[in-house]
Amino acid sequence: MSTAHRETIIASATATKMRLLDVSARLFAESGFDSVSLRLITENAEANLAAVNYHFGSKEELITAVVEKLVGPVNQRRLALLRKINLDISGACESIVEAFIDPVIQAASRGDEEDQRYCKLMSRCIASRDERVTSLVLRQFPEVLAKFVDALRSVCPWISSDEAHMRIMFMAGAMAHSLFHHDKLVIISEGRCEIASLDGLRDELVQFISAGMSAGTSKSV
After folding, report:
1. Interatomic CA distance for residues 63 and 60, integer angstroms
2. Is 195 in contact with 179 (CB distance < 8 Å)?
3. 110 by DSSP, 3-state: which?
4. In b/e form, how buried is each residue of 110-140, taking b as 16+ CB within 10 angstroms?
5. How far is residue 81's CA from residue 64's CA, in Å, rounded to a whole number?
6. Is the pLDDT of residue 173 over 60?
7. Which domains does the chain have, with CATH numbers?
8. Crossing angle of helices 59-83 and 113-127, rounded to 10°
9. Could you read off the pLDDT of 71-122 as tens digits, one per residue?
10. Residue 153 and residue 168 in contact, taking contact as beta carbons nearer than 8 Å
11. Model confidence over 136-155: pLDDT tens digits?
12. Sign of the CA dihedral 16, 19, 23, 28?
């Protein structure tokens, strides 16, 4: 086999893999993981089942690859913002919260297709009670969680590692629920808490979460 022929085969296989990822991301974001069959994916990607097995091995591994593709860039933005923070100055705790929240706010605000898919997918994952789905998503966060816990404990040395982990998870929950399900706030407040913009919601979130993140320690933890 000539080098040119080999390169053509590799390029074709790579293109097929990317089509499978792109189509899967779109379909999963639109309809959820369970509602989308491999047959539907391969039909839309103009591929066959053998290609899915070759590149990913199974539907679960394909889902994992899609989650990594969508969540990975957001997490990298978080870490990039975190690295820029001077942890020795006043207001560092608020900056940590902003570093965690802002990449998601930006994803929700932009019209970029990948970011919109990320938001739709995360909304579905948060609403899902499927432990398999939850596990796939949580797999993307160990490095991010560790870095943010270290940063939080650096600026709030009075809290334990356990408390820092809990507070980061509380932050993630408050952010996700507020951003992806803020329509419920409008309903439950009978229209009094109409969200004019994501920037306004972001400012309220940062203020609220920062107070909890830097609060005194709880002896019961």
Report:
1. 5
2. no
3. coil
4. eeeeebebbbbbbbbbbeeeeeebeebbeeb
5. 25
6. yes
7. 1-57 (1.10.10), 67-214 (1.10.357.10)
8. 110
9. 899 999 999 999 999 999 989 999 999 999 999 988 888 767 888 888 888 8
10. no
11. 778 888 999 999 999 999 99
12. positive
